[in-house]
Design a protein that fits this description.
The protein is of the alpha+beta class. It has helices at about 30-35, 95-100, 105-125, 160-165, 185-190, 190-205, 225-230, and strands at about 5-15, 55, 60-65, 70-75, 80-85, 135-140, 145, 150, 150, 170, 175-185, 215-220, 220-225. It has seven helices and 13 strands.
Length: about 240
C-alpha cells in the first residue's frame, strides 16, 4: 500500500492480560480468520480469500492486494488496515475523480465498521483468559491529498444528497485517532451497538452529530447499526 494513500486502521486491544488459545495451531481461530463473516455478497467486510501466515513467530497476517491487511497477535491485539481511496472505502469514484473529490463511501465505512465489530466479537471467545474490556480504535492517516481533503457525507449512498455532495464535511486534520472502551459482554452480545459507538466517534471528528449517522436504528435509548438497512441498501 502506498505510503501516501488515505487509510483507516482499525484495532482491538484487550485492556487486561489476554491470550488466544493454541494461537499458532490451525483450529477454530484460524477458521474465523479465513471466514470472518459478511453481511452480504461483495459487501465491505474483512474477507481476504487467503490463509493466515505466521510472520516472524509474532503474529498471524492475511492480506487482500492493497485493500486489506489483518494482523492478529497472541496477546489478543488485532490491527486491520484498509485503503480509504477509490479502491475500497471511497468506492464509486474513478482515480481522477478521487484526486479531485476524495469522497468517502458512507455505506462502505459503516458496513466495514460493523463487520469489524462482529469479527472482534467472534475473536474474543477464543481468548483464555478473557479480558473484561477491550479498547477499539479507528485511526485515519493521510486525509489531506494536496489541495483536497477526504470528506464524509452523512446520507445513504442511494440518496440525492450523497450524489450531489452539497452536504460534505471535510477532514479537519491530516490524521485522527478515535477510540472507545467497551465490555466484552457488550461486544459479544451487541456488536451492532458497539459499531454505532465507534462510528459516532468518527462522525464527531468530521463535525457531525450522532443523529446524522445513516443506516441506524434504535431500541429505546440503545442505538445500533442496522444490518437490515445495509442488506437492503441496493449498493
Amino acid at each position: 500500500m502506498k505510503t501516501d494513500t488515505p487509510v483507516f486502521l482499525y484495532s482491538m486491544v484487550p485492556v487486561e492480560t489476554a491470550s488466544y488459545r493454541k494461537f499458532f495451531e490451525r483450529g477454530p481461530l484460524w477458521e474465523l480468520l479465513e471466514k470472518p463473516g459478511q453481511l452480504r455478497y461483495a459487501g465491505w467486510d474483512l474477507t481476504t480469500h487467503g490463509q493466515p501466515r505466521i510472520v516472524k513467530g509474532e503474529y498471524l497476517e492475511l492480506t487482500s492486494a492493497e485493500r486489506k491487511r489483518i494482523r492478529v497477535y497472541e496477546d489478543g491485539s488485532v490491527f486491520v488496515r484498509v485503503s480509504a481511496d477509490q479502491d475500497y472505502l471511497s468506492w464509486g469514484l474513478s482515480d481522477a475523480q478521487f484526486k479531485e473529490m476524495p469522497r468517502l463511501n458512507t455505506l462502505a465505512v459503516i458496513e466495514f465498521t460493523l463487520n469489524f465489530c462482529k469479527f472482534c466479537s467472534g475473536l474474543v471467545v477464543h481468548m483464555d483468559p478473557e479480558p473484561s474490556q477491550v479498547e477499539l480504535t479507528i485511526e485515519i492517516r493521510n486525509a489531506f491529498l494536496g489541495e483536497s481533503r477526504l470528506f464524509l457525507i452523512p446520507h445513504p449512498v442511494s440518496s440525492l444528497w450523497f450524489r450531489g455532495t452539497d452536504d460534505r464535511h471535510p477532514a479537519p486534520a491530516p490524521s485522527a485517532n478515535r477510540r472507545i472502551q467497551v465490555s466484552i459482554e457488550q461486544l459479544k452480545s451487541r456488536p451492532d451497538a458497539v459499531a454505532f459507538l465507534l462510528i459516532q466517534q468518527l462522525f464527531l471528528w468530521f463535525g457531525l452529530t450522532p443523529d446524522r449517522i445513516p443506516y441506524t436504528s434504535a431500541e429505546g435509548d440503545l442505538k445500533f447499526i442496522d444490518e437490515l438497512q445495509i442488506k437492503t441498501s441496493g449498493s
